Amino acid sequence: MKNLYKRLFDYSENIQFECVVSMEEALKRLAEKLQKQSVFIFLTSTVSHPSLMGQITKNSVKLHRVVPFLGNIYKPIFYGRFNNKNGKIVLEGMFTMSPIAKISTLLFLTIFVAIEIIMLPVGFAQADPSAILLLFAIPIIAFLPVCFLFLGRRLARNDMEWISNHIKSTLA
């Protein structure tokens, strides 16, 4: 089950980006690369071209790509942190979906699975063909968020590489 969860929601395993500069310089460079974030970024497009956005602190890094006029809760977000490995500064993390995307998809699926479990005895107890057809409609409806998830992954298929290239060029 954990493997299915990871396949649905994670874009990568752990990734490492080596820094050739100090941690403070790397933090400064990444912060300079970020587009200023607007409070209303989700309501209107405040960027005119694909931009790198996120939050950078000494303890954590969260980066994602914002594409004008394309909202996608299923896009990859890089969550990581700077570590010292063998005397080198390394940015370690992984690409995954936002917690909101994970929670909303799992909640939607759980609700429809529960409805299906409740409806199974009712549908088979009735001889009405429409009740039996309803039993097939609920799994189809429950499958919709998974379809949206895969559509979102398809729309964001280049985001992970785009973010990785920005990180590499900034830390080099």
Principal-axes geometry comes out as elongated
Task: Let me know the average pLDDT.
Answer: 82
Please provide the count of β strands: 5
**Amino- and carboxy-terminal Cα gap:** 39 Å
Helix-strand pattern: HEHEEEEHHH
Largest sheet: 5 strands, antiparallel
Low-confidence parts: none
Strand order of the largest sheet: 1-5-4-3-2
Write the SSE topology:
Blueprint: H1 2-9, E1 15-18, H2 23-33, E2 51-56, E3 61-66, E4 77-85, E5 88-96, H3 99-125, H4 129-155, H5 159-171
Antiparallel strand pairs: 1-5, 2-3, 3-4, 4-5
Which keywords apply here?
5 strands; 5-stranded antiparallel beta sheet; 172 residues; single chain; 20% strand; elongated; alpha+beta
Description of the molecule:
It is a single chain. By secondary structure, the chain is α+β, with helices and mostly antiparallel strands. It has helices at about 1-10, 25-35, 100-125, 130-155, 160-170; strands spanning about 15-20, 50-55, 60-65, 75-85, 90-95. A 5-stranded antiparallel beta sheet has the order 1-5-4-3-2, with helices on one face. It is elongated and about 70 Å long.
Concise summary:
Helix content is 50%, strand content 20%. The chain contains five helices and five strands, in the order H-E-H-E-E-E-E-H-H-H. A hairpin with a 2-residue loop joins strand 4 (77-85) and strand 5 (88-96).
